[in-house]
Amino acid sequence: MKKSICTQQPRTNNKKHTILIVDDNNDSRVLLKTLLKGHGDNPTIAENGKKALKKIADKKFDLIISDIFMPVMDGFKFCQTVKEDGNGRNIPFIFYSAAYKRKEDEEFALKIGAARFVRKPVEPKKLLSIIKEVINESEKREFALNKAIVPNNDEKEIASLYSERLAHQLIHKEEELHDSEERLLSISNTINDAIIIIDSRGIITYANKSAEKLFGYSNSEFIGQGLCDTIMPKKYANAHLEGIKQFKKTGEGNLIGKTAELCAKRKDNTVFPIELSLSSFKIRNKWHAVSVIRDITPRKLADALLKKSADTLQKSYGGMISALSHMAEARDPYTAGHQLRVAELARSIAVEMGFPSEQTDGIFLGGLIHDIGKICVPAEILSKPGKLSDIEFKIIQNHPQVGFDILKEITFPWPIAQIIQQHHERLDGSGYPNNLSNSEIIPEAKVIGVADTVEAVASHRPYRPSLGIENALEIIANGRESAFDTDIVNTCIKLFNEKQYKFA
Description:
By secondary structure, this protein is an alpha/beta fold. It has helices spanning 26-38, 49-58, 75-84, 103-111, 124-139, 142-146, 155-190, 209-215, 219-222, 237-250, 297-330, 338-353, 357-368, 379-382, 390-397, 399-407, 416-422, 443-458, 469-478, 486-497, and strands at residues 18-22, 42-46, 63-66, 93-97, 116-119, 194-198, 204-207, 259-265, 271-283, 286-295. 50% of the residues lie in helices and 12% in strands.
């Protein structure tokens, strides 16, 4: 005995239309619901025919708009069930489908009691017009009297037509799926990267042409084999087998959704570097993984050559800077070794403060030639044992600018020319040659400035003996914040007092 769905009563024209939307596609449901609500109607949604029947049993509807191709109960079966119910047959029914488009589909839809058969897509204005027409017909009872009743003697014909429509659509879907698979296969085989798919056991179920070419296996040699038996080096085997256990349960793993650089093995057992991108998907409740594999041997070779070139260039820079350092000190025997000692102290400060290695290298090399500008200072001034005159002192003060002018056209990976130009600048603007202050002075020059002051005070000079390291540290300590960067000064003092740093 069939359950009565609901008794539909005539509505007054000023009442909102209560409309049931049945579609398995969420986007389609939301769009149609939004459209109807925007025009003053009261829509309700269901994902398939079976759920829609439950809603009809609990609520009165003025109209049903249904898709056809849906899981659990399709639109045709849903419409038949509604129209065969003694109390539900008067609900007007509109099919709104993108999957069923043949003339025979429309004829069958109308035969089982639908008022209209609308093919997606359709303009919203047109769809609203159709809805209005169908509801008006229903209210005038035209649809109920002429079309809603399905004669008993048509039951066999209806069943036959339904089976025919369903079979045709399934065949059509199968053809679409086959065409889609063919397209994906064609695309996969034109991609230069190797693509390998494994199941939840780690067994290869698919390998494209590029995979065959890259690893040296034929397709038949790939399919049905494990990764450990084909392309995976032994060093990864244990981790892979453990990972497969987790992947089988959850579809997750250490490399799922990531790109990593690893090694792979060819059929001839040669091992080479690869870039692996891994993702997962589910079919029939079982996890599968797609590996996109790229041979990065050329990239690694290029990186190695680039590193070799960079190392060679670095040595060339170092050799050039060392030569300039010796040239400057050859003219000033009293300061021989000064630049090297400054460079070594500055580097130690930078390392202790956590400067990046590249920046630390620049500080060291800049320290090696920070006084290169003194090659333009007359030797008698450099080695004068007595006090310098004002003019002589101004000549000495010009050496940072001279050093900058000598090196400014040379392109170094570090700001060498700026380090030389600014190593006598001070935070309060009292330095030279440009009276720069605080943030205008680059960090490298601030470090060299502290190291230079400490070494100069602690060493012998033509005009005075060494004042000792304690006096040197006291001078920079007193100059914190005014002349020197506080963190740099504190680090320098820490090196001498706590880490027993000593000049070589």
